[in-house]
């Protein structure tokens, strides 16, 4: 499906026309895979378009870059400002997905990235539900991947590094070939790590459980959903989840900036709960949308308004 293009992309400090935001085929990251990025969303709120948790996303972008030895030639404040200026320069009638990317550019070949120029872009386009509205309503079918999350001594899962998404992509592809919507990846010890682009939650006997971020991204939505759940009076545990605990959960759902709160109806052919969006997932999904869409004053501090 074609991307809904906007007018401008922020490219190394300048707003350029969407079609002119291009790179050379010998761009280093294209060959050797070292790049870091963010996935951010801006929602239409009663007070206009607002970016959710912009500062946290930018902080994570800088931490990912540090872990991957990429020096971003801007400050966090400049990157935050660039997001706002980009969104102001474009016309949006709906919610927006924002993709900052830091990559190694043109000028050097070979594995070593030392001395390679670093480029930074921010693109933003109108984007609806990651897996479609139907997924948010009725839940998705999930397959546990034959691919495992790399051990912490192989890759750095806490960094939102492009290289990590090869593993995610293969797992997601395998799930789709098997007629499912998304993959769930296990860690090297066999416990649930995360989805290909989401965090995993279960509900058992009224308690909400989600794993620690030992082999997964330090997720901004997971933190938000935990805070919302605790505010609603739920007990939330950060602990390991086994495969059979996932199969026998009363409810399961994914969270993420892109996936928002997506219920899971089936894992490896086992119907989860009633096979429909569960009571807790429904409550958290509604509350999450209220928060990001500026309808809950307690969380308004997380919004950066564009106008
Ligand atoms: C692998 C992976 N895990 C978890 C998440 C959820 O992270 P966040 O809530 O910060 O978007 C994402 C999405 O960004 C992801 O790509």
From TrEMBL:
Q: Does the keyword Transferase apply?
A: yes
Superkingdom of origin = Bacteria
A GO term from the CC aspect: cytosol
Q: What GO terms in the biological process aspect are recorded for it?
A: aspartate biosynthetic process; isoleucine biosynthetic process; L-leucine biosynthetic process; L-valine biosynthetic process
**What is the top EC class of this enzyme, as a single word?**
transferase
What EC number(s) is this enzyme filed under?
2.6.1.42
Entry-linked InterPro entries: Aminotrans_IV, Aminotransferase-like, B_amino_transI, BCAT-like_C, BCAT-like_N, BCAT_family, Class-IV_PLP-Dep_Aminotrnsfr
Its keywords, alphabetically, are: Amino-acid biosynthesis, Aminotransferase, Branched-chain amino acid biosynthesis, Pyridoxal phosphate, Transferase
Associated pathway: Amino-acid biosynthesis; L-leucine biosynthesis; L-leucine from 3-methyl-2-oxobutanoate: step 4/4; Amino-acid biosynthesis; L-valine biosynthesis; L-valine from pyruvate: step 4/4; Amino-acid biosynthesis; L-isoleucine biosynthesis; L-isoleucine from 2-oxobutanoate: step 4/4
Q: Sorted alphabetically, which PANTHER family does this protein's record hold?
A: AMINO-ACID AMINOTRANSFERASE, AMINODEOXYCHORISMATE LYASE
Name the family. Answer: Belongs to the class-IV pyridoxal-phosphate-dependent aminotransferase family.
Q: What is this protein called?
A: Branched-chain-amino-acid aminotransferase
């Amino acid at each position: 499906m074609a991307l809904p293009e906007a007018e401008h992309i922020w490219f190394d400090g300048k707003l350029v026309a969407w079609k002119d935001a291009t790179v050379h085929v010998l761009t280093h990251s294209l060959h050797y895979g070292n790049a870091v990025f963010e996935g951010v969303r801006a929602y239409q709120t009663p007070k206009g378009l607002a970016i959710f948790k912009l500062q946290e996303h930018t902080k994570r972008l800088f931490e990912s870059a540090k872990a991957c030895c990429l020096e971003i030639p801007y400050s966090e404040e400049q990157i935050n400002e660039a997001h706002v200026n980009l969104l102001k320069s474009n016309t949006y009638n709906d919610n927006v997905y924002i993709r900052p990317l830091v990559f190694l550019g043109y000028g050097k070949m070979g594995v070593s990235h030392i001395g390679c120029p670093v480029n930074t872009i921010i693109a933003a386009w109108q984007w609806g539900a990651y897996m479609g509205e139907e997924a948010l309503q009725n839940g998705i079918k999930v397959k546990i991947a034959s691919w495992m999350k790399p051990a912490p001594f192989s890759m750095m899962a806490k960094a939102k590094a492009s290289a990590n998404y090869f593993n995610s992509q293969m797992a997601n592809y395998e799930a789709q070939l098997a007629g499912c919507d998304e993959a769930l990846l296990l860690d090297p010890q066999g416990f649930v790590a995360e989805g290909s682009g989401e965090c995993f939650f279960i509900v058992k006997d009224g308690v909400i459980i989600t794993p620690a971020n030992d082999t997964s991204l330090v997720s901004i939505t997971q933190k938000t959903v935990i805070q919302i759940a605790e505010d609603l009076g739920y007990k939330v545990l950060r602990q390991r989840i086994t495969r059979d605990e996932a199969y026998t959960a009363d409810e399961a759902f994914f969270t993420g900036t892109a996936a928002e709160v997506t219920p899971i109806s089936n894992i490896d052919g086992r119907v989860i709960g009633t096979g429909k969006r569960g009571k807790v997932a429904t409550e958290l999904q509604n509350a999450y949308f209220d928060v990001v869409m500026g309808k809950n004053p307690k969380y308004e501090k997380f919004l950066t308004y564009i106008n």
